[in-house]
């Protein structure tokens, strides 16, 4: 059994951090309606490099963006707002990682990008966005790319 298939509560710190696929979906603005339905948009946090889907200041992100949640084994109950394919959410629910997850490909993100789950190049920054978030609701995966 691979370490990432073990119960999530048994992971050490390095394994916990490595579980993240780096898709960037958790860095996208979300909307919650009056019926508690959660919707994702393609408008990214101001710290996200939208071309690479990497946080520009990961170590200090919670100081710069107060509502940025740092998931830990102690606050997994907050996983409900994470993308349905988030490795933390999937593993907390006892499900296996998706076939496209980089850990299943030696760390290579190509399968994730091809499956349409990586936000690089498919989102815009809230720094430059003008308009209503309701007009930017999307469902992942977006159409599969050729990367």
TrEMBL record:
One protein family per Pfam: CxxCxxCC
What protein am I looking at?
YcgN family cysteine cluster protein
Source taxonomy lineage? Bacteria, Pseudomonadati, Pseudomonadota, Gammaproteobacteria, Alteromonadales
């Amino acid at each position: 059994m691979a370490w990432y298939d073990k119960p999530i509560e048994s992971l050490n710190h390095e394994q916990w951090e490595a579980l993240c696929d780096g898709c960037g979906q958790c860095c996208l603005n979300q909307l919650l309606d009056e019926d508690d339905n959660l919707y994702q948009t393609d408008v990214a946090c101001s710290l996200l490099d939208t071309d690479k889907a990497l946080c520009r200041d990961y170590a200090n992100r919670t100081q710069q963006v107060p509502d940025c949640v740092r998931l830990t084994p102690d606050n997994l109950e907050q996983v409900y707002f994470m993308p349905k394919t988030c490795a933390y959410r999937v593993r907390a629910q006892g499900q296996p990682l998706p076939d496209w997850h980089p850990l299943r490909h030696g760390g290579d993100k190509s399968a994730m990008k091809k499956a349409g789950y990586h936000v690089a190049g498919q989102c815009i920054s809230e720094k430059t966005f003008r308009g209503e978030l309701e007009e930017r609701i999307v469902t992942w995966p977006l159409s599969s790319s050729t990367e």
